[in-house]
Amino acid sequence: MSTILTEADASKALDIAPGETIEIRLKGNPSTGYIWESSETVGAELTESSYENYNTQGRVGASGTFWFRYHIRSSGHIRLIYRRPWEPSSGNQSQFSVTIKADRGLSLAPSSPSSTLALIILGGAVAVAAWFAWRRAGGGTLGTDAK
């Protein structure tokens, strides 16, 4: 499932787990020469972008929505700029940015060819002791090599 962001979400810090998808939808009118561009992305991969025209009546110059889909890999940020691509950057363009905090969830790291060590991160505390207690109690291996 995607988290959908709009102009109302600009400058927010969001908790999004690694592996999740966000979709940013911003209003614009490319007939004026202005387009939304992904200008800086850290911790996310742009996987798809497009423009949807609201114009269902055949009117020239109608506005629509630019949308961008990102796959979250780690904490970072995304910044988009509304500009005319052929004009030099003035620093006064409209911008949309969000900060991504993706430090929650389950982190898996391979420890050997025959097993996988699971480091469970809960509220920022690493629960390695719980994993060792589980293994001492007879817990099986984790990963694709478990039979």
Overall outline: elongated
* SSE pattern: EEEEEEEEEH
Helix content: under 10%
- How much of the sequence lies in strands comes to over 45%
Determine the mean pLDDT: 78
Distinct helical segment count: 1
* Tally of distinct domains: 2
Structural class, judged by helices and strands?
A: mainly beta
**CATH topology name of the largest domain:** Immunoglobulin-like
- Major sheet: 6 strands, mixed
- The rounded distance between the terminal residues' Cα atoms is 31 Å
CATH C-level label of the largest domain: Mainly Beta
What is the radius of gyration computed over CA atoms, rounded to a whole number of angstroms? 21 Å
Describe what you observe in this structure.
The protein has 147 residues and is mainly beta. It has two domains: 2-101, Sandwich (Immunoglobulin-like), CATH 2.60.40; 105-136, no CATH class. Helices cover 6% and strands 54% of the residues. Strands 1, 2, 3, 4, 5 and 6 form a six-stranded mixed sheet that branches. A hairpin with a 2-residue loop joins strand 8 (115-122) and strand 9 (125-126). It is elongated, with a radius of gyration of 21 Å.
Annotation keywords:
mainly beta, 2 domains, 3-stranded antiparallel β-sheet, 147 residues, Immunoglobulin-like
How do the strands and helices of this protein lay out in sequence?
Layout: E1 2-5, E2 13-15, E3 21-28, E4 35-53, E5 64-83, E6 94-101, E7 105-112, E8 115-122, E9 125-126, H1 128-136
Parallel strand pairs: 1-3, 2-6
Antiparallel strand pairs: 3-5, 4-5, 5-6, 7-8, 8-9
Pfam family, one: Inhibitor_I42
Transmembrane segments: 116-134
InterPro entries: Chagasin-like_sf (IPR036331), Cys_protease_inhibitor_I42 (IPR052781), Prot_inh_I42_chagasin (IPR018990)
